[in-house]
């Protein structure tokens, strides 16, 4: 018996009846020989962590565009926080932590430069629209490994696609990541906004703090514990009515006071203008696209290739390309 088979046998014994067992995966788009050491979901974790798209997350905006300071979240640190919260919930509910971690680590691989401002810009530019969760699936299916994709399992791909809105994920593990994503971003965005002086502790609605707690750790702890209690022995991931309503109120507060605050978001228009100009440049002269995107251009059209290229850019790379194309360089005397 291989180590993988031993792990899968142990899964039969300690996972909840509602958990997704790796031996019961619906498989990959292309069949592969099984690894003797790792389960399919463990392999997916490794493939995501070693991908180019994952490494680029460290230079992509979470909320604040290129903030001055080392402690503001990036898309990478957000992803890691989602993973930790999701695994805590999954472990307590007897779910498959490997599947949960793989979905969490891959859920934002398709996010644009400049956060949701970049997503809105590409959504307006791309025929048929653009959504980062769809792009995340495209990254793992089509764009990584020189166009071969990562060939992830069906369960991980489904969790990535369904992590934000619309139809819930088919697995409880995917549903856990969806809730963990909301828990993570609301709370770390509060912490970053407090650090940046965008809001102050007394601004947070008192009725919310009385339910969720008055500190960063208290809020996350309350939300995680509530999800565990409300979801135990259930066929879906839930929140209690009291905590769910408090979380919605906190989200409304953040949209009103942070996500639309000129102090935090005042530069977003410039970022969107940059992406629009970059999109127009490559759209009018697609020969300038890197070689990796020429096959996409030939197979799926110029707009698709340009969108994939720009969506994959980091914040600083997008700024640098814009400078090279549109900002006059000083004349150098030889």
Largest sheet: none
CATH class: Mainly Alpha
> What is the CATH homology-level superfamily?
Hypothetical protein af1432
Secondary structure: number of strands:
0
Q: On the 0-100 scale, what is the average pLDDT? A: 94
The string of secondary-structure elements, in order, is HHHHHHHHHHHHHHHHH
Structural class: mainly alpha
Helix segment count? Answer: 17
Low-confidence stretches: none
Count of separate structural domains: 1
Overall geometric form: flat
The helix content is: 55-70%
Radius of gyration: 21 Å
CATH architecture: Orthogonal Bundle
Q: β content, as a range?
A: under 5%
CATH structural fold name: Hypothetical protein af1432
In angstroms, what separates the terminal alpha carbons? 70 Å
What's the SSE blueprint?
Blueprint: H1 3-14, H2 40-49, H3 52-56, H4 75-93, H5 97-106, H6 115-125, H7 132-143, H8 154-161, H9 172-195, H10 206-212, H11 216-231, H12 241-257, H13 262-265, H14 268-284, H15 294-300, H16 302-311, H17 315-326
Helix pairs in contact: 2-5, 4-5, 4-9, 4-11, 5-8, 5-9, 6-14, 7-8, 8-9, 9-11, 9-12, 10-12, 14-16, 14-17, 15-16
Structure described in brief:
It is built from 17 helices and no strands. With 334 residues, the protein is an all-alpha fold.
